[in-house]
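Person: I keep going back and forth on a fold encoding question. Show me how you would write down a chain together with its backbone fold. Please set it down just below, with no commentary around it:
Helper:
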Amino acid sequence: MKIGLFAINYGTCGDPASAVRVARAAEAAGFESIWTGEHVVLPDPMLPSFPLAPETPMLDTTVALTWIAAHTKRVRIASGIIVLPLRNPRLIIGVGAGWLEAEFKALGVPMEGRGERMDDALRAMRSLWTMEHPEHHGPSASFSHVASYPRPIQRPMPPIVIGGESSAALRRAVTLGNGWYGFGLTVEQTKQHLEGLRRAAEQHGRQPELGKLEITVTPVGRFEHRSVEAFAAAGVHRLVVLPNHEASHAQRHKPVPLGDILRNIEAVSQIVAGAVS
């Protein structure tokens, strides 16, 4: 089981110095990856369905990951997730279609058709990264006779992880992604979504060059060696824990003091070591 840490760019880690301390602690504890979240703006007042205070500091994903990469040596860095319809098709790994209407309105981007734009952006990104002479013609991105360098160091391209639990997101993960990311889930909820992924694969098929679909989940609730083993038995390859690794779904965005995050990293490392042994 791979273990990652979520929220390296907001809340307590919205402070760059604290983010470095947390990232280095996670790396020293043997964590495989560190993940950001993303919202371009936050609703004010806070939505009941989205318990993240509007004054929560949230660093830009690409800036935050660059900062963390410059201060660590081995730990992998990942976006969990980029709201791809709000971005141009050039970069990034973990992507989703988005759901928070306020940030779409703030940027003047219509929510309608965002799934189609995301599919088109994914195909455009693949073209830019893998084709000797990139060419793509879609409803929201169209180009030919262009070059885009440097190419990704990871060849043929960085793994694309698709976030979301709707039927469209599951279909997108199966047909266009290297992995799927479920956020704030219990083991039972994860099993339900994995069954949805299997149905999507049966219905839509999967290109062999995409490889096996890698499953990443941010768990909620009690975190112990038995829960790690249960996620692994369900077919999960990576757990990306919250700063409070035993937060409930309602507490998933609640700020956690720096000292508690550092202690939680050590606790998670010990729990995972016990599950492995």
In short: The chain has a mean pLDDT of 92. The chain is about 40% helix and 15% strand. The chain has one domain: 2-276. Helices lie at 16-28, 61-70, 101-107, 114-130, 167-176, 187-204, 225-234, 258-276.
